[in-house]
Amino acid sequence: MDYTATVDSWRYRDRRALGKLNAMTKPVIEVSDLRCAYGAFEAVRGLTFEVHKGELFALLGTNGAGKTTTLETIEGHRKPSSGAVRVLGADPVSQRSWVRQRCGIMLQESGFAGDLTVTETVQLWQGILGISSIVEDGLARLNLTHRRDVRVKQLSGGERRRLDLVLATLGQPEVVFLDEPTTGLDPQSREATWQVVRELLAGGTTVLLTTHYLEEAERLAHRLAIMHEGRFAVAGNLADVLETELAQLGFDLGDGVRVAELPALFGELDELALAEGRVQIRTARLQDDLQAVLGWAAARGVALRRLRAHHASLDDVFHRVAGGARAEISTEVTVR
Ligand SMILES: Nc1ncnc2c1ncn2[C@@H]1O[C@H](COP(=O)(O)OP(=O)(O)OP(=O)(O)O)[C@@H](O)[C@H]1O
């Protein structure tokens, strides 16, 4: 049985139900016109969004887009320059200890004491949080049991990341912040991490995540935002985000076929690709244009070589945003 597929389809089926439920409940994380500056430089420029109970919201974006600054500000590590942040209804700066007790935080870089063993580190963290829960399960699920007596400084980068996650999820926090949780992990460890995150969500934990892995956001996020230069360039659920980019239809222009002979299409022809002998069309009406091309080819007896028709992927959207082609997208996205 493909467990991943089952979990993912469950997520998609359940998303609508979660949305209806969430419309009736107070958000767990509320961010309103958030701005954060380092001196004269404004790294975060007016973000507004909410995250509801049991929901995972993913922040994607290019290096320096402002993801970590946003996350750390919501965690209460710094005051916003302006705007408002509420976590579980409280101000994460002025009510820090109340909020902190209810949150698990996985920073981008851990600040472990290298001379402590894995077990000692967990025990220390349990002491700080006043938790006496048994962590064997957490260590086992993230494949760290056999490393429990190893000093932290002797762990690999991926093992440290997994230890970070064990610590962030100690004591069943209501909210978990994950800053690039799977960077540097091998595929197996990444899958184990995703499984832990799915279990947290199923238990009602709310998760705010930053990642550079588009697949991670596709697999886990109920909603996501792609940041660029401190703003949300595009945001919403996966379908909303994919709809912001046109679909693509392409095939090689065979010998003896002239461009003028092509059927009328709704999409726009890529002149650069055409110069290299390929018909490449970006279109908002993929089905109509595909039908027109197939009908035309059948009528003329043209074989369409390397025919490819596909809706936009998250990768396509990301590259458009990263390429700075933001004129086509609203930069004032409000996510509610
Ligand atoms: N302490 C700081 N002082 C000055 N500028 C900072 C500081 N921290 C971050 N910045 C700047 O703020 C901007 C946003 O940084 P941030 O780390 O939030 O981005 P990011 O999206 O998390 O990037 P990455 O994907 O590389 O982690 C960048 O231009 C960065 O150089």
UniProtKB/TrEMBL annotation:
GO cellular component terms given for this protein: plasma membrane
One GO term of the biological process aspect: response to antibiotic
SMART domains tied to this protein: AAA
Major localization listed first in the record, in broad terms: membrane
Signal peptide: none
Record keywords, A-Z: Antibiotic resistance, ATP-binding, Nucleotide-binding, Transport
Cell compartment(s), UniProt: Cell membrane
Topological category with respect to the lipid bilayer: Peripheral membrane protein
GO molecular-function terms, A-Z: ATP binding; ATP hydrolysis activity
Chain ranges of the ABC transporter domain: 29-254
Lineage: Bacteria, Bacillati, Actinomycetota, Actinomycetes, Pseudonocardiales
Domain of life: Bacteria
Descriptive protein name: ABC-2 type transport system ATP-binding protein
SUPFAM superfamilies cross-referenced by the UniProt entry: P-loop containing nucleoside triphosphate hydrolases (SSF52540)
The species this protein was found in: Tamaricihabitans halophyticus
